[in-house]
Design goal:
The complex is a heterodimer of chains A (759) and B (162). Chain A is an alpha/beta fold and 759 residues long. Chain A has a six-stranded parallel β-sheet, sandwiched between helices. The radius of gyration of chain A is 28 Å and the shape is elongated. Chain B has 162 residues and is α/β, with parallel strands linked by helices. In chain B, the strands form three sheets. A five-stranded mixed β-sheet of chain B has the order 1-2-5-10-11. At the A-B interface, helix 8, helix 9, helix 10, helix 11 and helix 12 of A face helix 3, helix 4, helix 5, strand 7 and strand 8 of B.
Chain lengths: 759, 162
């Protein structure tokens, strides 16, 4: 790796572009002020999720069941709205279907005015944040009190939630103690978590007693009975409902499910997926108006059970606010399946570092927020944070209803690109370098990354001049200014002989067809073909040693880089070209080995959207990660002695029987990350696997000047885990390799290079 | 067991009125010192609230409390300690069983049920604390089918956030 890029590293990131500079400043500030608290909490939740879902025997079946219920409910939504109205009215309550926030707030203000409400107490509800009902009620002179402890802290501090489940996740205990001391000036200021909680319990308890109106959200509403389900732990929602005679529940229309029995899988999944709790303390399943007597705290000498429950009022305010339009939008529709559990936030490397104040919009935060904000607020709001989804896909297996969150981010990015693009502007100067399917005027940084396959080909043809030029100080300064590529990053160094050329030059397949156990195509992905040719050669050696007849045909790029930039049309066109190039090989019964994990993930996941179903299935079924393929060959009886065992040879690899392995994020999502561990262990290596969801580089993300520091922060746990290891550090992804090199000051090795026989 | 579990002062809802109908015929009654016709002032002053539960969920250690006209919900909630009486016969294995039980009752009788698992909890103040708004402790007294009892302390059984 060249270190020329170090020159100028001290310059402020993003110099020259005010937007990038502002973004970098904002992220830097959040990393410093809120990053530690957010990281500790979200990583704790994420670990809790693995443990808690691991205790379920039928986790995947429950997820499938939950998904099926949501698909059905959203499909039948208009019908369910009619049904719930009948159910709630039969119970003695009222349903109001609000078109938008203003409509909902107008109705709620009317209810408050009719009941003469002076104080409203609220339990936590993101939907109420969305419509900003507190402001609406306050304008009428109603004292609105948040009773969830986290929300109350934010109300006192006048801050916004940074997490959809634990809203004050960015506040430290010390920060809360200071806030209470400043706001209440208590004689004996509370300091410990216990003292702070009891202080809040007392204060809020008194406020609840005097309240007239109780407002809650709803996690789910059953249309068949009008039963609403509330998932809580503090008990404030129970008190909010019990202590007041007027209950207003605010819920998005997507919260409807057909029947009470449908609650079951969600109850088992929501706490486990979110904060790692098997179940939260309280699952309230209310069919309001509730039957409890209303305690009369003003005239408390009367018997509690005085029949006052009969006078309760209930208003279910169902909010559309863009949701019915989302339902008709093929790309945004899946967002409506979201149960707001926060798993996608907690599993996300970027979110763990900066939280919802950077990775969030007006109301919602984390990966799924792009869908919510695009649907509710519009593309402009989504555009402010949508970049922070790197497409690492670690949220995909975490989502209890199986939403393809990275895809929603990609689809929205595509719309943002097209909205921003100025068709009158022609990128004529770059047309040859960026031969994509996108409109002219698209941001140059986006287009350069999106056309990486072409750039790499050009770079390899002109290497080593391109390498020297690319890493030269002045060129890096221009690259940073014009394309936003951070100077502190080393750029990939192009090889002068590509993998395809090398293979052809050495005479093509080496294992005769008659002797071959199997036939395989090693797909020359852009990174392997033009940059990291060695791992390609090692793959060929390993496979041939196991008796596979290998070919390396010249094939186009997978479309992953343009996809990462939201350039869907370009990616789709790449998918068609790749399939055209591979179809005859697949027809001939050849396996396809894909070295770059993100390309394999693209074949298996995103190509489903680009190719006819049968084509996608054929290609997905025929494609393998190299270590997955080796694992299969060994399982099929291939001789492991043909591969390199730890004791053999010299150098860092052989001296390291012990391996530190960071599985690629997308490889883990498609379930191939563990094959390297399995093969290593089979061959006698001792493997330690990283616990980090994503290295932080995530394709091109970490190269962008506004995100360089965030990217390095996301990688910090990896540095902590592997920074002073004497193990051989191993990683499969190109971007992981770059990132680990930057974090550990030594480039890691691809797993296949460890086990392939020497040249 | 209830006598041993209840602190002072204590309020309660008679088991037959807070739990399933079957409990009305049970020999189990609350000790005399428990105020079973509490005023709101009694509730405010109470340390312990005693109620029956309609259902137990074995897999999660949850009890189903009904928000009924007898005041089971406030007596369970506005206290430091909640003592729950549950018949062994009313325990179902898992959540799907609980919702199969709830479904018809929600549709036909509009019942309001809180599935409570352990004490009230929060982690919003920088560490896990029990008793954020609701009870700090929960004790479940199991009524065996032969009429004997068995106590369990649920205070430590559940971890909680929020």
């Amino acid at each position: 790796m060249s270190s020329d890029a170090e020159a100028g590293a001290s310059d402020a990131a993003g110099a020259g572009d005010p937007d990038r500079e502002a973004k970098a400043d904002r992220i830097r500030e959040l990393l410093a002020t809120e990053g530690d608290a957010v990281a500790e909490n979200t990583r704790g939740f994420n670990e809790g999720r693995y443990e808690s879902t691991g205790r379920l025997d039928d986790y995947e079946a429950l997820k499938d069941e939950a998904r099926a219920i949501k698909e059905d409910a959203i499909e039948r939504l208009p019908e369910l709205i009619d049904e719930v109205r009948e159910s709630v009215e039969a119970n003695g309550g009222t349903v109001y279907l609000a078109d938008d926030a203003a409509d909902a707030n107008r109705y709620i203000r009317e209810v408050a005015a009719e009941r003469g409400a002076e104080r409203a107490v609220k339990s936590k509800s993101m939907t109420s944040e969305e419509i900003e009902v507190n402001d609406a009620l306050a304008a009428d002179g109603v004292d609105v009190v948040e009773t969830d402890l986290g929300e109350w802290v934010l109300q006192l501090a006048d801050e916004e939630p940074s997490h959809i489940v634990a809203p004050a996740i960015h506040k430290s205990r010390e920060g809360i103690a200071e806030l209470f001391a400043e706001r209440f000036d208590p004689e004996d200021p509370p300091e410990t978590a216990e003292e702070l909680t009891m202080f809040a319990r007392e204060r809020l308890g008194a406020l609840v007693e005097d309240a007239d109106l109780g407002m809650t959200g709803a996690n789910f509403v059953a249309a068949d009975s009008g039963t609403m389900l509330l998932v809580t732990s503090e008990g404030n929602a129970r008190k909010t409902v019990t202590a007041t005679d007027t209950h207003v529940a605010v819920a998005g229309v997507e919260k409807l499910v057909p029947a009470v029995e449908d609650f079951s899988p969600f109850v088992e999944l929501i706490g486990r997926s979110g904060t790692g709790q098997d179940v939260t303390s309280y699952i309230s399943t209310l069919t309001p108006p509730v039957d409890s007597p209303v305690p009369d705290f003003d005239d408390d000498g009367e018997p509690l059970a005085d029949g006052s429950g009969d006078d309760r009022e209930f208003h279910l305010v169902l909010i559309d606010n863009g949701r019915m339009a989302m339902r008709d939008d093929e790309e945004l529709k899946e967002t409506l399946y979201c149960i707001r559990c926060s798993a996608c936030s907690n599993a996300c490397g970027n979110f763990q570092s900066v939280g919802g104040h950077a990775f969030g919009g007006e109301t919602y935060s984390g990966g799924i927020a792009t869908g919510w904000e695009a649907g509710i607020e519009g593309l402009d709001t989504a555009a402010e944070f949508n970049d922070l989804c790197t497409g690492c896909s670690r949220c995909v297996p975490a989502c209890p209803v199986g939403i393809d969150i990275p895809w929603i981010n990609t689809a929205v990015r595509d719309r943002i690109n097209r909205g921003e693009a100025d068709a009158s502007q022609l990128d004529w100067a770059f047309e040859e370098l960026v031969p994509d399917e996108e409109p002219g005027g698209l941001d140059l940084a986006t287009r350069l990354v999106g056309n990486y396959a072409t750039l790499a080909k050009w770079g390899h043809r002109t290497a080593p001049i391109a390498n020297r030029l690319a890493n030269a100080g002045p060129v890096r300064a221009i690259a940073e200014r014009v394309a936003g590529i951070d100077r502190r990053r080393d750029l990939p160094e192009f090889a002068s002989e590509s993998l395809v050329d090398w293979f052809e030059a050495r005479g093509g397949p080496a294992v005769p067809a008659a002797e071959a156990t199997r036939e395989a195509v090693v797909y020359p992905d852009t990174a392997t073909n033009y940059v990291d040719v060695e791992r390609g050669k090692a793959t060929v050696r390993a496979l041939e040693a196991l008796g596979v007849r290998v070919r390396v045909p010249d094939l186009p790029g997978s479309g992953r880089p343009p996809l990462s930039q939201g350039m869907i049309a370009t990616a789709e066109s790449a998918a068609e070209d790749v399939y055209a190039g591979l179809a005859s090989h697949v027809d001939a019964g050849r396996d396809v080995v894909v070295i770059e994990p993100s390309d394999l993930a693209t074949f298996r996941r995103e190509y489903e959207r680009f190719l006819p179903e049968e084509s996608h299935e054929r290609l997905a079924d025929a494609s393998y990660d190299p270590m997955e393929y080796v694992f299969g060959l060994l399982e099929g009886g291939a001789d492991p002695a043909a591969l390199r065992a730890p004791a053999e040879g010299t150098g860092p690899v052989a001296s390291g029987k012990r391996i530190a392995y960071h599985p690629h994020c997308q490889a883990r999502t498609i379930g191939v990350g563990e094959y390297a561990t399995a093969v290593f262990e089979r061959l006698g290596y001792d493997v330690r696997v990283s616990e980090t969801e994503c290295c932080g580089m995530a394709g091109s993300f970490g190269y962008k000047s506004e995100y360089y520091e965030l990217s390095m922060d996301v990688g910090e746990p990896l540095r902590e885990q592997f920074g002073d290891t004497d193990r051989t550090v191993v990683a499969a992804g190109t971007s992981c390799t770059e990132q680990l090199d930057a974090l550990l000051d030594a480039p890691p090795t691809h797993p296949i290079e460890v086990i392939a026989p020497r040249e | 067991m209830v006598e041993a579990a209840a602190g002072e002062p204590a309020v309660g809802v008679p088991l037959g009125r807070s739990g399933p109908d079957g409990l009305a015929d049970s020999a189990a009654t609350l000790p005399d010192r428990i105020e079973t016709e509490p005023t709101t002032a009694d509730l405010r002053a109470a340390h312990t609230g005693i109620t029956a539960a309609s259902l137990g969920v074995a897999e999660y250690g949850s009890v189903a409390l009904e928000a009924n006209p007898a005041g089971t919900e406030p007596v369970s909630l506005f206290v430091d300690r909640h003592v729950v009486v549950l018949r062994e016969a009313d325990i179902v294995p898992d959540m799907p069983d609980a919702f199969d039980w709830l479904g018809p009752r929600a549709r036909d009788e509009s019942v309001d049920v809180v599935f409570a698992t352990g004490p009230s909890a929060t982690a919003d103040m920088g560490g896990l604390v029990h008793g954020a708004h609701g009870p700090k402790e929960v004790h479940v007294v199991l009524l065996r089918d032969d009429g004997a009892t068995d106590g369990s302390d649920a205070a430590d059984a559940a971890e909680g956030i929020q």
